[in-house]
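Students often ask why we bother encoding 3D structure as a string. The short answer is that it lets us treat folding as translation between two languages. Here is a chain of 264 residues written in the first language.
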Amino acid sequence: MRLATINVNGVRAAWRKGMAGWLTATEADIVTLQEVRAPDAVVREVLAETGFHVAHTESVQKGRNGVAVLTRAEPKDVRPHCADAYFDDSGRWIEVDVALDDGSLLTVVSAYVHSGGVGTPQQDDKMRFLGRMLERMAAIGSDADHGVVTGDFNVGHTERDIRNWKGNRGKAGFLPEERAILDRAAAEVGWVDVHRALSGDVDGPYTWWSMRGQAFDNDTGWRIDYQFATPELAAAATSARVDRAASWGERWSDHAPLVIDYSL
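And here it is in the second language, the structure alphabet:
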């Protein structure tokens, strides 16, 4: 099973710039999207010829957020919300249940955590959302045979995850309380950061670079896109890669897809 996750930074623009070719070439079984930023009818029109079943939830804020899960097999269930009604219309969380060939149930989540800002209400919301994410991970681990929460968390977990980590101390995205949530996902909930587990103790591999300056060319990036999986699913992961564009001009998002293969 190949699972890819990518913040598309607007599905219509990404599709025009090259997402379509990537989606065909990557041959994924499941693809999760964040920051879709389009009405449901438009999303379905854009993706109509891909052969995927599309589960999507949009934000009440026009042109903001939006997450989706694309599956080759028709989902058994779709839930466009997390464990908090406060976020139900935010377009930040969707989960689907997919039956695997062996009859087991896989729950796949596409989540978009906004960037926040120190000392702002947006940061309070971010921490609340991250807390609810932990609660849902625990519940999914109890209810499904396998679970994976994917997406743009807008948090660099460790110093290995941000090239300029020293310059980002005290800033949203690298705050101790944000990073502690990902610590707890492993220590308390028992889930695994699959990309890090496969990549080892190395810088990156990064999944986001600013569109400004020379950040992309110099690989001054952040690893903020994740696949956190239940232990058995994580143990089945065989390879991970970041589909980084060959050049700045060939990018179709400021993120790059994170693609992981699982032997199931």
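Translate back mentally: The CA atoms of residues 23 and 210 lie 23 Å apart. Keep this in mind for the problem set.
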